[in-house]
Amino acid sequence: MTTLPLSGVTVVSVEQAVAAPFATRQLADLGARVIKVERPGGGDFARRYDTTVHGESSYFVWLNRSKESVTLDLKSASGREVLEDLLSRADVCVQNLAPGAAARLGLDAKSLTERHASLIPCTISGYGTSGPWADRKAYDLLVQCQTGLVSLTGTPQETARVGVSIADIAAGMYAYSGLLTALYTRATTGVARAVEVSLFEALAEWMSQPAFYTRHGGTQPPRVGTQHGTIAPYGAYTAADGKQVLFSVQNEREWTSLCERFLGRPTLATETRFATGSDRVAHRDELNVIIAERFLWSSGDEVMQLLDEAGIANAGVNDVREFIDHPVLAERDRWQDVGIPGAVVSALRPPADLVGVEPRMDPVPAVGEHTERVLAELGLSAARIEQLRADGVI
Q1: Could you report the per-residue pLDDT of 48-101, keeping only the tens digit for each?
Q2: pTM of the entire structure?
Q3: 10-207+336-390 maps to which CATH number?
Q4: Which residues of 311-339 are buried (b: 16+ CB within 10 A; e: fewer)?
Q5: 234-316 CATH, one of 3.30.1540.10, 3.40.50.300, 3.30.70.940, 3.20.20.140
Q6: Which ranges in 159-270 belong to alpha helices (H)?
C-alpha cells in the first residue's frame, strides 16, 4: 500500500464543534495521526448536537473519522502533565478553545513555541486573538451575520442563513491549508511557524466580491432568492411539471443562443434593455417574466434538454435525497463505508484525489476510546492509568 503523504506527522488537537475538527480530519485523511483530546465523560460537545446517525451526531460523524480519542481533564495538573508529554512528541497542536482559555492552559501560540520550538501551533478563534473583539465568543451563524452574508441570502422580503456551517468550514479550510504550508516550511527551512485563523476573517475573504461591488457601486447586491445578485439571467425557474431548473448565462454568446434556441425570440438578444450583462440585471424583472412564461411550455426534463442543446449550463434544483443519490457520486465511487460506534455508515471520500493514493477513512472514535493505548505509549504504567481514571483525569 502507498504511504500516505502525512504519515509520520502527529497532531494533538484540543478541539470542539466544527472548525478545528474539520481541519484536523483532512490531515487525518492524508495519513496524519490525529490525537483528539476530549473532556472526560461527554467529550466534544458536538457529539450531542443530534443523534440521527445510529445514535451519533451527524456533525461528529462527518468531522472525526480516522482520529484517536483521548480523554483528559485539562483543568487538573495531572491532565496537563499528560498533555505536555503528548505535545513534546507532536508536530502540530490545534486548538479552538473559548477566548482566554488557551492562554490559561498555556496552549496559546507564544507559550507553545517557547516550550516546543519545533511544534506548529494552530489557533482557530472567532474574531482573532487581538483586536477589539478578541474576547467575544463566535459561532457560525453569528459570523454569517457579522460579515453581512445573511443580508445577501434569502428573498427580497426576508434574510436567511446559509444552510451549512459556512464560517466554520471556511476557517477549517484555511487552517488546513495553513498547516500544510507550515509543515512544508518547517521541512524546507527548519522553522516552525504558528498558524492563526479566525472564523470572521475566513468568511470575510469569501465576502470580497460583494464587498468590492458595494464599495464601488454604492449599493450592495440585492437578495433575489435562487437568482444571482449581479448576473442575469442566472437563477431558478419553474417548469410546467413543477420542477425547478436553474440556468446561467455567463456571456453574450450564451445570451444570443438562449434567445435564439430556447426562448425562440432571436431579436431579444439585441434589444437595448437586454444588450449587456448590466442591462439585463437592471431589467431583471422584465426578463424574468419572459423566461418564466417560456418555462411553462415544457417539463423540467424538456427544459434541461433544450438548454443543453443551446449550450447553456443548467441543473435541476435537487433536495438532499436527490443529492445523496446523485449519479456522479455513485458512478465515481465517492461513497465509502466508515465505522462509527456500533454501526457502519457511508461517507464521502475527500474531494481532492491524489493519483495513486487512497485516503484513510478509518472509524469515528467513541469518547476516550484510545486513552489507555496512547497513555501506555507515553510510558504510563497500567496502575498509573487506573489511578488517573479513578481521579477523573481521564
Answers
A1: 999 999 999 999 999 999 999 999 999 999 999 999 999 999 999 999 999 999
A2: 0.90
A3: 3.40.50.10540
A4: ebebebeeeeeeeeeeeeeeeeebeeebe
A5: 3.30.1540.10
A6: 166-189, 199-206, 208-217, 252-257
